[in-house]
Structures are given as structure tokens and as C-alpha cells.
Amino acid sequence: MREISVVIPVFNEEENVALLHEEVKSVCVKNRFRYEIIIIDDGSSDRTPQIIRKLSPVVLIQLRKNFGQTAAMDAGIKAAKYEYIVTMDGDRQNDPNDIPKLMDCMENNNLDIVSGWRKNRKDTFMKRFVSRGANVLRKVLIDDGIHDSGCSLKLYRKECFGNINLYGEMHRFIPAVLKIKGFKIGEVVVNHRARTAGKTKYNWKRTFKGFIDMVSVWFWNKFAVRPLHLLGGMGIFSISIGCISAAITVYYYITMGKVGHTAWPLFSVFFIMTGILLFVTGLMSDIIAKTYYETTRDSSYSIKQVVRNK
Fold this sequence. Notes:
Elements: E1 3-10, H1 17-30, E2 34-41, H2 48-53, E3 58-63, H3 69-79, E4 84-87, H4 99-109, E5 113-117, H5 125-141, E6 154-157, H6 174-180, E7 185-189, H7 204-223, H8 228-256, H9 264-293, E8 303-309
Parallel strand pairs: 1-2, 1-4, 2-3, 5-7
Antiparallel strand pairs: 3-8, 4-6, 5-6
């Protein structure tokens, strides 16, 4: 029997949460899954948590305030107990009927992650435009091999999250982070539905934060294990420029007997000192990176309570 944990972060979705719960429940019963539905209330200010309390079966994780979708998803993933973990949005734009399709793809192809691809999106033009631009940039910086990293409908094996904490807007880049760690990724075209109730939570701030986190993932992929390769390389380059400048300074001194009328001595000191600082910073960062891998990280959120209805 297939066992799945369905993780759904919600924020002010009082008009959608009960209907979505019923849809997920129906799919799980129809396919004879052993399942749990984990709904994380991310500090909603409407009746969302009160409505969730009346649902069954459900695991309600209520955060103390609005920490963001990534933190809510991290809390739900950590609470999941079954082999397969499905993540999806709480606005009913993801279709729960696609869950069996994701599971078939994972099992038939021996994958660790299967991401949904909203090939025919039902969003506004501006939202689709920004998303396509972000996808192009993502492909350049962190090519994770999928078309639609922003689709929340994804299926993971539980083992994927053994040593991962999510923060910022990192939920968009989970496949990229897992690919860095060697997990196998696949993709399936899924149904995308238009929002029929509630208000979208996406805005320019989330787009900006997503870009910053994209750069962070790129750096993590390239230099997290050995930051000395980046900073040390920059330091050596700067020292080299400083040495060239120093050679020019010596040349001026030998041929003209003075260098006070040129900026070459100042350039020499600046580039050599900057290079030394960069190299030392790289060494320190290398030590910090090693310490990071040997210590436990704190979470970026705080759970108020957990309610389990059977």
C-alpha cells in the first residue's frame, strides 16, 4: 500500500481550505493510499485555522505568525511520517487528481523527486511573464533540469529532507538543492486551475526575495563546500594585479628616479592588501563551512501548536 503525507501551507484561505481538503481526501481514498493531510496555517488572520480544526483527518500545524510559505512548508515536511511527501498550494490551483500521476512517474523511473509542470497556466499575463523571466535566469544560474520550479505540486521521497532546512523563498529551489546532493529529478505535466476564491499572495517582494535566494543556491552549488575557491581565487587575482602595479612602480623609480607623481604605488598597496584580505576571508569562510556541516542549524520559524484529528 502506498503511504503519502500531503503537505499544504495556507495563509488566509478560508474559502478554499475545506474544499481542497475534501479533494485530497477523495483522491487518497479512491487510490487506497495510507495517508495523512498536513495543513500548516501560516499565521492567517481570517477563519482559516478554525475551519481546519473541523476537518478530519487532518494534522494542523499553526505557526505563531506569518513566517512565509517556505517556513510553513518546512514545518509540514518535518512533521510528515510517510515514505512519500506531496507538497501543494492551498489556493486549489494545483489539482490533487495529479498526485497518482506523480507517484507513477517516480516509481516507474526510480526517481527521488517529481515536479509538476504547469504547461498551460491559468494565471494573469504579468504573473506568467515574471515567471518565465525567472525560469530563464534560473536555467542560467542553477539548471535543475525542470521547466517549472515555481510549481508547488511536487512529490518527494522522505529521505530527501534528512539534512535540509528551508528558508527565505527556497521552496522554489528544492529540486535544485536536492540535485546538488545527488538526488534524481523528474517532471510531469499537471493540470493548473484558475483561482476561484481568495486573493493571490504573490507580489514584487516575493519575486525579489526569490531572486536573492536563487543567487544563494547558485553560490551554494559552486562554492559552499570550498568558499576558498572563490574568495581565494579573487584574492590571488587582486594580488597579481598589485604585483604588476608594483613592477610598474619600480620601473618608474629606476628610469625616472621618482614615483611621487604617479598613482602606481597607491594601486600596488590597494590591490595587494585587498587580495590578502580576500584570501584570509576565504580561509575563514572555509573553516565556517566545515563547522556548518558538523553542527545543527536552528529553524527560522516557531510553531504555536499541533492539532491531530483522527
